């Protein structure tokens, strides 16, 4: 995906609503899979740098910067 719309970000947030932060990229992806995220969302999450994310806002910001 080349650009995330506000609807895409809202959907991604729903797939990660139960995330406990801090969380690693793997933990975030595993939760998204568990919550039924579509392949497009999983691919976006797979592009996240491997590190600990302190808050959901960091995940969204990082995805936005990777997919402009």
UniProtKB/TrEMBL annotation:
Xref: InterPro entries: DUF2795
What Pfam families is this protein classified in? DUF2795
Protein name in UniProt: DUF2795 domain-containing protein
């Amino acid at each position: 995906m080349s650009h995330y719309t506000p609807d895409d970000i809202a959907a991604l947030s729903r797939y990660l609503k139960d995330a406990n932060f801090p969380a690693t990229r793997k933990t975030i992806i595993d939760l998204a899979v568990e919550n039924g995220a579509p392949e497009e969302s999983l691919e976006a999450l797979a592009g996240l740098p491997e590190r600990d994310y302190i808050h959901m806002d960091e995940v969204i910001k990082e995805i936005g910067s990777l997919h402009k």
